[in-house]
């Protein structure tokens, strides 16, 4: 795939204190990526969060256009064929993707753009945009990860077992990423991310 995005170009401008850059946040399901991202955006409203598109059903309290754009599989596949995604992947029987145009526009305008995506999508971004900052969020332990997944109260035993098997595989890939952060304590994990983003 041809790289069309100058992730970092030139010096900082008067219009923006940041160079435009992609920030990829990934890690196994249940590790707390969403919680970390929510807290990060609350502290740093200058960050741009790219809302992903998914074919899964909304969870309790999720809002279309805020948490995800919820669409049908048919519509998703149509968007894939039109090249509308920066990356996309299938996870746990559902499609997830990052809208291309919105992300590129924000990076070109000098924003730090944060993507919260699954491992397969994160690898696609790293391949296409090697200057993106990639952060892998790790659980303190697999047992704690299991407790968090069970605490959601949303998955069957079969689904939990599948997520845990997948998590073990994904954790093996942590070394592929620029930064590894253990989400044991939310505040400490947030500070670790902030150091990488703003120092």
UniProtKB/TrEMBL annotation:
Role played? Essential for recycling GMP and indirectly, cGMP.
Q: Which GO terms describe its molecular function?
A: GMP kinase activity
Protein name (record): Guanylate kinase
- The residues the entry assigns to the signal sequence are none
The keyword ATP-binding is assigned to this record: yes
The record lists the lineage as: Bacteria, Bacillati, Cyanobacteriota, Cyanophyceae, Nostocales
The catalysed reaction is: GMP + ATP = GDP + ADP
Q: Which gene produces this protein?
A: gmk
Q: Which family does it belong to?
A: Belongs to the guanylate kinase family.
Recorded source organism is: Anabaenopsis arnoldii
Its predominant location is cytoplasm
Entry's PROSITE patterns?
Answer: GUANYLATE_KINASE_1 (PS00856), GUANYLATE_KINASE_2 (PS50052)
Residues bound to ATP are 27-34
Q: What keywords appear on the UniProt entry?
A: ATP-binding, Cytoplasm, Kinase, Nucleotide-binding, Transferase
Enzyme nomenclature, EC number: 2.7.4.8
Q: Where in the cell is it found?
A: Cytoplasm
Domain annotation Guanylate kinase-like: ranges? 20-198
């Amino acid at each position: 795939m041809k790289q069309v995005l100058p992730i970092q170009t030139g010096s900082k401008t008067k219009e923006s204190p940041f160079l435009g850059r992609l920030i990829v946040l990934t890690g196994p399901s249940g590790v707390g990526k969403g919680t970390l991202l929510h807290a990060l955006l609350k502290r740093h409203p200058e960050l741009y969060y790219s809302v992903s598109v998914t074919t899964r059903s909304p969870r309790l309290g999720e809002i279309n256009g805020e948490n995800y754009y919820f669409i049908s599989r048919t519509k998703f596949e149509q968007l894939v064929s039109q090249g509308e995604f920066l990356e996309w992947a299938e996870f746990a029987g559902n499609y997830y993707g990052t809208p291309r145009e919105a992300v590129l526009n924000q990076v070109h305008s000098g924003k730090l753009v944060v993507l919260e995506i699954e491992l397969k999508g994160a690898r696609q971004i790293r391949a296409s945009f090697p200057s993106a900052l990639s952060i892998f969020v790790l659980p303190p332990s697999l047992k704690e990860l299991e407790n968090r997944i069970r605490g959601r109260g949303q998955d069957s035993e079969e689904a939990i077992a599948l997520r845990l098997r997948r998590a073990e595989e994904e954790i093996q890939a942590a070394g592929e990423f620029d930064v590894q952060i253990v989400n044991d304590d939310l505040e400490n994990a947030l500070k670790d991310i902030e150091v990488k983003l703003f120092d």
